[in-house]
Write a structure and sequence with these properties.
The chain is an alpha+beta fold. 26% of the residues lie in helices and 22% in strands. The protein contains six helices and ten strands, in the order αβαβββββββααααββ. It has helices at 4-18, 38-45, 133-141, 147-152, 162-172, 185-204, and strands at residues 23-28, 50-56, 59-64, 69-73, 78-82, 90-96, 100-105, 111-115, 245-249, 252-256. Strands 1-6-7-5 form a four-stranded antiparallel β-sheet. The chain has a four-stranded antiparallel β-sheet with strand order 2-3-4-8. Helix 1 (4-18) packs across helix 6 and helix 5 packs across helix 6 (185-204). The longest helix is centred in the C-terminal third of the chain and has 20 residues, at 185-204. It is elongated, with a radius of gyration of 19 Å. It starts with a helix and ends in a 7-residue tail after the last strand.
């Protein structure tokens, strides 16, 4: 699933091409992508001008003239391709006054939603990249539960997913099953710094291409070459050489070092 770094990479590769452009037409080749109302969404988008492209967590937000927003959530296998071909997996095509954006989605879990002025995705916490240490600590300390499931909860922090939570917890030396409320200030600071570092490094590398993720230009990300635990089960830990472990947490494959990460 595209996480914050992948969605931010897509935003950056698309923004310079779509901002200021007007939508001539929008076609939905699968009704699912438009929440079962393709005709309504097509009519709303026709003639709309894209003022800017924002991001909140894993959501790409096209801010439209007049205050409305087109919310694009890629979910597991969604792609946005600049001037792409409407091939087998194309689910939507947005034709602009110059160029077009093709939405591909093999699994068809991705969605495009219309929000009126002042509306937006419901139930999301603050964006992970915008959280100060104080805000981050406050959001975790007041909650009971294990640290990894809390970090994956988009209502707590928006944008983090399986890859980057594993990587950040390893860098911070914190076990995925550690109780969040028991993290002291020192470990909380290390975790916050690790999250910021991992996210920014991943954005710089264009995201992680584990499966079929590509940016809007069709380029693969490179951060998977720098993963320290994710996807490395059985391989030596980069710090202590003990084998990297894998377990399931919140129905997600979770990678960690039992020596370097303590509860």
């Amino acid at each position: 699933m595209p996480e914050l770094p992948e969605v931010e990479t897509i935003r950056r590769t698309l923004a310079c091409r779509v901002e200021g452009r007007r939508i001539r037409a929008a076609w939905f080749l699968s009704p699912l992508v438009a929440d079962g109302r393709p005709e309504v969404l097509s009519a709303r988008l026709k003639g709309a001008r894209i003022e800017r492209l924002d991001r909140l967590g894993k959501h790409l937000l096209a801010r439209l003239e007049g205050g409305a927003t087109l919310d694009i959530h890629l979910r597991m296998t969604g792609k946005l391709l600049w001037n792409g071909e409407a091939g087998r997996w194309a689910r939507a095509v947005i034709e602009l006054d110059e160029g077009r954006v093709v939405f591909e989605d093999i699994r068809q879990f991705g969605r495009m939603r219309w929000w009126g002025e002042g509306e937006g995705p419901a139930g999301l916490g603050p964006d992970a990249l915008g959280l100060s240490l104080r805000e981050f600590a406050a959001r975790l300390k007041g909650r009971r539960g294990r640290v990894k499931p809390l970090l994956l909860n988009q209502a707590v922090v928006a944008g983090l997913g399986n890859i980057y939570v594993d990587e950040a917890l390893f860098r911070a030396g914190i076990h995925p099953l550690a109780q969040a409320r028991r993290l002291g200030l020192t470990r909380m600071r290390r975790l916050h710094e690790a999250i910021m570092m991992v996210l920014n490094e991943a954005i710089e590398a264009g995201g992680s291409s584990i499966a079929d993720y590509v940016d809007a230009e069709g380029a693969r990300g490179g951060f998977q070459e720098w993963h320290q635990v994710y996807g490395r089960a059985g391989l030596p830990c980069v710090r202590c050489a003990a084998p990297v472990q894998r377990m399931v947490v919140s129905q997600r494959g979770t990678h960690y070092c039992r020596v370097c990460q303590r509860r």
